[in-house]
User: What shape does this take?
Amino acid sequence: MNEKKYLTWYNKVGYGSGDVAGNVVYALLSAFVMIYLTDTVGLKAGVIGTLMMLSKFFDGFSDLIFGALLDKTQTRMGKARPWMLWAFIGCTAMIIAIFAIPPSLGDTAKYAWFFITYTLLNAVFYTANNIAYSSLTALITKNSSERVQMGSIRFMFAFGTNLLIQTVTVEGVRLLGGGAEGWRIIAIIYALLGLAVNTLSVFSVRELPPSELLETENEEATKAAEKVTLRESGKMLAANKYYLIILIVFVMTQMFTATLNMGIYFMTYILGNANLLGAFAWAINVPLIVGLLFAPAIVARFGGMYRVNIVGYAVAVAGRSGVIVAGYMGNLPLMLLFSGVASLGMAPLQGTLNALIAEASDNTFLRFGKRIDGLMFSCTSLGVKIGSGVGTALAGWLLDASGYVNPTDAIPEPDQPHSVIAMLYFMYLWIPTIANAIILALLWRLDVEGANERLRAEAFTSQDLADDADRLVPVDRLRRIRLGQGWIVFPEFFTNP
Assistant: This one.
């Protein structure tokens, strides 16, 4: 039976373009805020990293708050669109403020300015905007195929924006006057671009009426889920070893990303050309996009995610090992080549992480007869934010501990001591490789699909469940729907060199 279609091509493209706005903010912050603060503002990397970590803790918990607020929202525009629209105005103001710290302030005031604006951006405005944006996938269509299409278009816009920002920003800052003025102007340009595209995206779609959204073929399961207490949910969450492994994987991927985001320092002080950041961005992101495009077919070909993810991360570890060798050789072409190989290997896992969470949720349902999807996805988001915060703090601490010399007006390009050079090699080459190796070890124990199949087989061999076997049919249907949705919401990693 063909599913009802809700969206035109304009709606799908309009929705997907919304990730231009989000990634203008994300790419600028993740790739450039640290070097702006150390080399232009003159702040200490270790202190910055600590403040960013504290901010990420607030950010993680605010996800739960704004998710609850969105659920209670009822307006003529719908539930999510008002949050998406108005929250980005705050994003616009805060991203400009972060890159416009007054030079007349003392160091303490500069740290306070950054912490307040960074926290308001991430924990309030960006979180509200992004949760609303992601929620629209379930609010503007009930067609699973359309949701997959929206997700595909979305990540194309996301990675395309990352590529653009990482390629042009360094040269753009130079052309706009360099120093504090250059960073301020580039932030204004990006912020206004994001605001325009976000507004366009909001008005390119319409939310379905609540009466249509509330229709469900599985009302009994919905009512049962509503009866699950928070305490019960927590116990079931802690009892799911596969979900706990996934949570650790999320944390490690964020550690990977945080140290890889220090690439601007590696390009500047070791390779001697900050503009090479763009070349590495292409080497990393293009294979990632290609891998994501083919990942669904590969997973289908091998009958599941388990083997594909393991083989992919074996390739990723080999690729990052190649980057280490090429890095110490000083061979730039080989570094770019092996970076691409590693990124290609990481693609299947990035594309299937949300689907793995859905499988973990199925595992809980098959064992306990109750669903805790919302809690699982919320806790995963919290894990991502915490992992990102700790990873960023670690990068700042290591850079500071190595004796990094901040540029000054008198010495705009200081010679960094040997300890800093050695630390940059360790951070950019070794830590991402170690993180990938740990993830590979974890993936060996993440055969949640196999565990679920065994549980289903056991259920059907039980006489009691066999008499009522038809009630398990919706479970498979729900899983397939969520697998589609897993391609809609993408974790914020593997995007920066």
Summary: Residues 472-496 have pLDDT under 50 and may be disordered. The radius of gyration is 23 Å.
